[in-house]
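Need tokens for this chain, all 334 residues.
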Amino acid sequence: MDRIPVPTLVVALALAGMSAAATAADPRTIDGNDTSLYWKVAQDQVVREIPAEDARRWTRDGIAREVALAYTIDRDGKVRDVEVLRHDPESASADWAVYMLEQYRYHPTDANAARTAVRTATTMTMGPPPVAASTQAPLRVEYEQLTQWWRPVGSPFEPGPAYGGSNPAQSVVVELTIDRDGVPRDVSVVDATPAGADGAWAHRFVSDDTRYLPAATNLERRPVIVRMPLTLALVGTALRIDGSSDAAARESFARMMDALPDPERLRLQLAVMQIALAGMGSVADMNRRYPGGLPTIVDIRDRVDGMTHAGILAAAAAEAARDGAPRLGISDRH
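Here are the structure tokens for all 334 residues:
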């Protein structure tokens, strides 16, 4: 049997309203980076605080700051069979990580209509036990520690100077607060090289073109304050779709895809399909409009002309929100 490409299968299931029957098969083993393709965390169902008795015990025993775990997400979205693979330091307790992971609940993504159970892995990094979000002030962290709290949303940029000025600084250090929504706030330039050069481009880049998602160990979405080094030569203009012709659309879309990691590429492909399928309600509708197969960027080049990666995701999310529209699991977070 020929393999069915993932986007093809997702579109067919979404348009037809199909749902694969549940099976008792063993969970599918996947890479930890692919978990979000199958399941997304149900933030509203996660227990947010560690019981005081456990917190005191773990503090007394010493808390492992880094814990690698394997676990299963069953077809009901519950965490099962958590296994500690390793922890550092070995003499400290990894129980907090097991406890926190067991509190997670998941919803299947639209691409996982079959509610496929998965066996996956993660690494949790933590300092003291977390407290309620309402009591948490921004935490000052080193730049090297930032990904333990927040990770940048993948967004493709074209390398090269993007922000001019008569005397732009080549290297800049900015200080910023990443708030609970992953948005940079209170951005300020604290150092610029060479001395006397203009670091305003770094302020604009951080404020306008960067957004963050919480790391797996930062369910509380704790704000942080960080100093971030930036180099003008490595900061570029966000790539945009050139809809002036079929060839230009294909080329600009290929460049955008090449700049993304695999999970983001799938999201972008699905976003293009979501936009192209506007107004359709069945697989038959899709086949009539696109008799040659699935829609591509060429089919919507007029609609997405000039759009960035983030703009395409936002447009797809808006289409998915319309009544009766097929939903391909596109989020507008960026």
